[in-house]
């Protein structure tokens, strides 16, 4: 299975400041026939199901604020919240869909400093 | 509005089985597959498996092979996940989720998601 490792486990950021979350995969998730990275990001607030933010590593789902952005390729990926808002407090997960045994990262908890 | 609505909470004894349903609205199970994901209390997300639209082919997590069965009823747009031989570490919230894009098989992101069903396994 592809192991997805997120860091940090948690971070506290001041309102309006940038939050950066890392996700590393144990093998490349770049799918060359489609020229895409098979990686998604989700946001989960307490008591709620996960919510899709980004797929193909950097494509934002329609309706997701543009302060959320994804980047990276191969094995190293980043989710950036450019200006943290109070409603962004949540746990964020990455997920690979390159391998048919799909796997998630362990999650990163984002809080307000 | 696309929506997946799951059945209510369940309490089961060890060794029993549980069957969770996921009713799709404005979302056809003829053209879209369903994935099941679970989350133990205070823990992260675990992919359980996927069922294909149309023909009902399944693809399960290796650790759950032999204990899990996923089915769909395309006449009612309801998907089901049955887990057998329950253990205490099966306790958690179980989610159904739709294919991010049709036709990609299990190699997909997940959207939309059901609200979750709490399954508690306790003697």
Walk me through what this model shows.
- The complex is a heterodimer of chains A (113) and B (123).
- Chain A contains no helices and 13 strands.
- With 113 residues, chain A is mainly β.
- In chain A, strands 2, 6, 7, 8, 11, 12 and 13 form a 7-stranded mixed β-sheet that branches.
- Chain B is mainly β.
- In chain B, strands 2, 4, 5, 6, 9, 10 and 11 form a 7-stranded mixed β-sheet that branches.
- The chains are: A mainly beta (113), B mainly beta (123).
- Chains A and B meet through strand 6, strand 7 and strand 12 of A and strand 5 and strand 10 of B.
What's a concise summary of this model?
The complex is a heterodimer of chains A (113) and B (123). Chain A is an all-beta fold and 113 residues long. Chain A is built from no helices and 13 strands.
Low-confidence stretches of chain A: none
Number of strands of chain B: 11
Instruction: State the assembly state of the protein chains.
Output: heterodimer
Q: What is the count of DSSP helices of chain B, taking H or I runs of 4+ residues?
A: 0
Estimated share of beta-strand residues of chain A: over 45%
Helix content of chain B: under 10%
- Rg of Cα set of chain A: 13 Å
What is the CA–CA distance across the termini of chain B? Answer: 40 Å
Outline type of chain A: globular
Largest interface, with Cβ-Cβ < 8 Å?
Answer: A-B, 23 and 24 residues
Radius of gyration of chain B (Å): 14 Å
Helix-and-strand structural type of chain A: mainly beta
Mean pLDDT of chain A: 97
Instruction: Please tell me the overall pLDDT of chain B.
Output: 95
Distance between the termini of chain A: 36 Å
Q: Which sequence of SSEs, written as H and E, runs from N to C of chain A?
A: EEEEEEEEEEEEE
SSE run of chain B: EEEEEEEEEEE
């Amino acid at each position: 299975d592809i192991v997805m490792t997120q860091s940090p486990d948690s971070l506290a950021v001041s309102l309006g400041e940038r939050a950066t979350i890392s996700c590393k995969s144990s093998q490349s998730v770049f799918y060359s026939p489609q020229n895409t990275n098979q990686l998604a990001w989700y946001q989960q607030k307490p008591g709620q199901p996960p919510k899709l933010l980004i797929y193909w590593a950097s494509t934002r789902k329609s309706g997701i604020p543009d302060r959320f952005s994804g980047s990276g390729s191969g094995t190293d990926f980043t989710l950036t919240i450019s200006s943290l808002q109070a409603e962004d407090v949540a746990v964020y997960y990455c997920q690979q869909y390159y391998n048919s045994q799909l796997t998630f990262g362990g999650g990163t908890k984002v809080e307000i400093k | 509005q696309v929506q997946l609505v799951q059945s209510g909470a369940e309490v089961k004894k060890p060794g029993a089985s549980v069957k969770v349903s996921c009713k799709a609205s404005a979302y056809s199970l003829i053209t879209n597959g369903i994935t099941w994901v679970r989350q133990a209390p205070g823990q992260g997300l675990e992919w359980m498996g996927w069922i294909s639209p149309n023909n009902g082919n399944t693809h399960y997590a290796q650790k759950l092979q032999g204990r899990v069965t996923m089915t769909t009823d395309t006449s009612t747009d309801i998907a089901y996940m049955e887990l057998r031989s329950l253990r205490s570490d099966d306790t958690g919230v179980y989610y159904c989720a739709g294919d991010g894009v049709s036709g990609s098989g299990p190699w997909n992101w997940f959207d939309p998601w059901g609200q979750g069903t709490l399954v508690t396994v306790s003697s």
